[in-house]
Amino acid sequence: MEAAPSPIPNRPQSQKVESMFGKVAKNYDLANDVLSLGIHHLWRKKLVRMSGCQPGMSVLDCATGTGDLAIEFKKHVGPTGTVIGSDFCKGMLDFAPAKAARLNLQITFEQQDVTQLSYPSETFDLVSISFGIRNVENPVKGLSEMLRVLKPGGKLLVLEFGQPPSKLFSSVYRLYSSKILPKIGGWITGERGAYEYLEKSSALFPCGAAFSGLIKTAGQEAGLAGQNSVKTVQVLPLSFGIAYIYCAVKA
Q: Deepest of 83, 90, 122, 194, by most Cβ within 10 A of its Cβ?
C-alpha cells in the first residue's frame, strides 16, 4: 500500500499549490476536524451513499490527499473491489497508506496529475474528487480526464466548497472563513497562508448550476464525434450551501 512514485512536471501554479499542501500535510487532518467540527466526514459519507457504491466496484479517488474518501469507498467495495487514491502532492499522499493500513484496508495510492491521468479509458465504475477540483489549473481538463477513465454508465462524484445562497448565513460564514478560519488553521499547521488561500479560492470558485456547466463542458470534451459524454448531473447543497456534491452519470 505504499504510494507509488511518479514524477509530475509542475506548472507554476501547480507547484505553488503542491508546496502549500505539502507544508500542511502533517497536521492537515487535525485542522480539517477542528475547522469543520468533523462535518467533512459526514459530507464524504453522503457522497459515497449518493454514488450507489457496491461490493466489487472499481473506484478512482483523485486529489485523495491523506486518503479519507478513498478509505470510505473501500469500506463499501469490500475485498472484491478495488480503490486507487491519487494525488499530485506527494507530501499529502505520504500519510495515506498508514491510515489505510491501520484500518486493515487494501488501497493503492499513486502520484498522479488529474489533468494527465495514466489510466486507460473506461477503467473505473466510479471516479471522485473531494475539495480538490478548485486547485486544478484547468478544472475542465481535469473533469474531462476523470470522465475519460470512467466506464459508460459510471458516475463522477465531486465534493467541493461553494457559496451559501442565504444572505444572512452567507455573511456569517464569510466572517468565519475570512477572519477566524485562517487564524485557527495557521495556529494548527503553522501555515496561515494556506487557509487564506482556502477562503479566497472557495469564495471565487463556481458552484451549483455554474459548476454543473463546467461538468457538461468537460463531457463535451471527453465525448466522441461531438457527443456529450455526460448524461445527467445531480446537484446537492450541503450545510446550507457551504459545500456541494455533484453526481454526473456518463452516457
A: 83
Q: How far apart are CA 115 and CA 67, in angstroms?
A: 19
Q: Could you tell me if residue 183 is inside a domain?
A: no
Contacts of 188 (CB under 8 A, 6+ apart): 27, 30, 31, 34
1 in Cβ contact with 97 (< 8 Å): yes
Question: What are the Cα distances from residue 160, in Å, to 2, 229, 245?
Answer: 27, 22, 7
Q: Which helix (H) or strand (E) element contains residue 152?
A: strand 150-161
**pLDDT for residue 61 is more than 90:** yes
Are 30 and 216 in contact by the 8 Å Cβ rule? The answer is no
Question: Residue 143 belongs to a domain with what CATH number?
Answer: 3.40.50.150
Residue 13 CB neighbours (<10 A): 12
* pTM confidence score: 0.91
Contact in structure between 174 and 147 (CB atoms under 8 Å) = no
Residue 203 pLDDT > 60: yes
Torsion angle (degrees, nearest 10) of CA 86, 185, 192, 87: 0
